[in-house]
Structures are given as structure tokens and as C-alpha cells.
Amino acid sequence: MDGGAFGAGKAGGAFDPHAFIRQPHTLLRLLSWVFSIVVFGSIVNEGYVNRLDETQEHCIFNRNRNACNYGITVGVLAFLSCLLYLALDAYFPQISSVKDRKKAVLSDIGVSAFWAFLWFVGFCFLTNQWQASKEEDNPMNEGGDAARAAITFSFFSIFTWGFLTFLAFRRLRDITFQEEYNTLFPNSPSLLP
To answer: Which long-range contacts (CB under 8 A, 24 or more apart) does 109-115 make?
Structure first.
């Protein structure tokens, strides 16, 4: 076994895209990325409708523009956050310092838990506003599928981000164990690859 910090045996090695794609947190992050695209894309494309006697478009969620704005904002920011943490996941094996790895994982825990909470709020808000929508505001039922897709994928996002939080906690446990092991046995080989 190589000595050093958790994963430090690979630090400086070549990037392996196959191993990177097969990691559970990478797959979940890609799935969260797709879900965020569906949420903000469906609201942007079909989330604004107008009555037959009006020219100005209103949000399909009970004519409440805050609901559409919230869904779009959370979707776009989650999209960008997924990209940022995918880059960090790709760079993670190159980080040799246990303390730096710990900081990266702690930020992942905080950000993932925060996004799970935001998606929960978004799901509740969009569902409530969709339920309160009046049929006369959208007599031709335009954009109904897009609204339901935004609500559905907001719901799925709660679980993907929640599971990302769980996986980050597991990663933190492994790093903390390795740090304690290295403190107790400074001259011994690393337990974890």
C-alpha cells in the first residue's frame, strides 16, 4: 500500500474518466444536474401563459411570478453548483493534504444539505401555487405538463441532493479515520488507497 493521506497514493496521477464516472457521487451529481435543467428549462419555456383577452404573460403557478422566479433561480444555481462540484470531484484525487480534502468534503456536505433544503422549499412552494391556480387563468391548459415536470423534478432533487449529503458524510468519516490513524501511527503505511 502507498503511504500518505487518504487517496494520496493517487495524488498527481493521471485522470481516469472511467473510474470518475462510475463513482456514486458523480452519477448523483450528474442526475441532479439534469434535474435542475428540467426544472428551470420547463419553467422558462412553458411557465408563462396569458388569458385569451390579455397580451401580458403571467406565471402558470397561480399567476405568482415569485414561484416562477424561485424555480428558475434555484434551477440555474443548482445547475452551476453541480458543475462546480463535478470539477471538484474530478480534482479531488489530486489533493494530497488531508486537511484540504476535509475542507472540500465539508463544503460538499454544507452545499448538498443546503440544496436539498432549497429543493424541498421549492417543491412545497411550486406545489402550493399550482394547487391554488385557477382554471380560468389558463383555459387552454397550456404549460400544465411543464409545471408538473418542474414540480416532479423538484421532488426528485430533494432526494438526489440528500443522498449526496449522505455520501459526503461517508467520505468525511473515511478522511477523519485516516487522519486519526496517521496521527496515532505516523510511520505506518496508509490503510486506505
So the answer is: 109/165, 109/168, 109/169, 109/172, 111/81, 111/85, 112/161, 112/162, 112/164, 112/165, 112/168, 113/161, 113/162, 113/165, 115/32, 115/78, 115/81, 115/157, 115/161
Identity at 68, one-letter amino acid code: C
pLDDT at position 167 = 95
**Residue 59's beta-bridge partner residues?**
48
Q: What percent of the chain has pLDDT over 70?
A: 83
pLDDT tens figures, 78-123? 999 999 999 999 998 888 888 888 899 999 999 999 999 999 999 9
pLDDT band at residue 174 using 50, 70 and 90 as cut-offs: confident
Q: Does residue 6 contact residue 174 with C-beta atoms inside 8 Å?
A: yes
User: What is the DSSP secondary-structure string of 4-36?
Assistant: SSTTGGGTT----HHHHHHSHHHHHHHHHHHHH
Q: CA 60, 65, 68 angle in degrees (round to 5)? A: 65
pTM of the complete model: 0.83
Q: What does the H/E/C string look like for 155-173?
A: HHHHHHHHHHHHHHHHHHH
Cell of 84: 462546480
Q: What distance in Å separates the CA atoms of residue 152 and residue 131, rounded to the nearest whole number?
A: 14
The answer to whether the beta carbons of residues 12 and 97 sit under 8 Å apart is no
In this predicted model, which residue has the larger pLDDT, 134 or 27?
27
Determine the residue type at 51: R
